[in-house]
Amino acid sequence: MDTERIDLAVIGGTGLYRLAGLEAEAPHQPPTKYGALSGPVRIGTLAGRRVAFLARHGEGHSVPPHLINYRANLAALHALGARRVLALNTVGGIGERYGPRVLACPDQIIDYTWGRVSTFCEEAGSEVLHVDFGDPYTPALRAEILAAAAAAGVAMVDGGCYGATQGPRLETRAEIARLRRDGCDLVGMTGMPEAALARELGLDYACVAIVANWAAGCGDAEEITFQQVLDNVAAASTALPGLLEALLA
Ligand code: HPA
């Protein structure tokens, strides 16, 4: 396996199945002791740096949030040489600053998911880790992302609390009202356990959330359609190449 250092690993969410501009070599799909990854890891050059990309839901969006093998994905990226992970997560907006097509770099998480394998500390004889998770996203990487956004002229909301829900269905209005009372600004289905597993592996990890829709009951829409989600992700994602170039500079 090629374990040359990777400058940045990017995990793409809903609507982000390839990384624009990445001149990728042959795809890697290493076996892991946790099972199969969501799909191939594409490693190549972007802005002169070695970058890896993995589509979290698979390149054909075939893996639902609760069935993503988060452990295999992160273990493979780690084994391939990644130490910094930029997670791109498609989300719904709850707080008024987080409308459709906004990019945000959240700083907190509340985990409402259940039944997902959420730790590497499960094997017999493995060390039980109680990792610090007070700041679930690596502050230094967040600062770099925000500085890169400023340098690239990309508008990005600094901070916010990501509420991680189970999916794959969207939430009820009452559930979103509860998340709002809890202090969530964003809602998505894939933020956890990915962030916690990254911390257990000692990876630097931060999220750029791409707001695809107002969460249930937050906007005027009667219904949230997948097409609306994809259209808004596509529109907001036009800022990503500039952001990545600045981040990798
Ligand atoms: N809720 C949960 N996850 C999402 C949403 C949402 O409204 N939009 C995109 N991902």
From TrEMBL:
It catalyses: a purine D-ribonucleoside + phosphate = a purine nucleobase + alpha-D-ribose 1-phosphate. Substrate binds at M189, N213, W214, A215. Pathway: Purine metabolism; purine nucleoside salvage. InterPro entries: MTAP (IPR010044), Nucleoside_phosphorylase_d (IPR000845), Nucleoside_phosphorylase_sf (IPR035994), Purine_phosphorylase-2_CS (IPR018099). Phosphate binds at T14, R56, H57, T190. The keyword Electron transport does not apply. GO terms for molecular function: glycosyltransferase activity. Its EC number is 2.4.2.1. Residues 8-248 form the Nucleoside phosphorylase domain. The record marks E171, F226 as: Important for substrate specificity. Pfam families: PNP_UDP_1. Keywords: Glycosyltransferase, Purine salvage, Transferase. It comes from the Bacteria. Purine nucleoside phosphorylase which is highly specific for 6-oxopurine nucleosides. Cleaves guanosine or inosine to respective bases and sugar-1-phosphate molecules. Involved in purine salvage. HAMAP family: MTAP. Belongs to the PNP/MTAP phosphorylase family. MTAP subfamily. Homohexamer. Dimer of a homotrimer. Although this enzyme belongs to the family of MTA phosphorylases based on sequence homology, it has been shown that conserved amino acid substitutions in the substrate binding pocket convert the substrate specificity of this enzyme from 6-aminopurines to 6-oxopurines. This is Probable 6-oxopurine nucleoside phosphorylase.
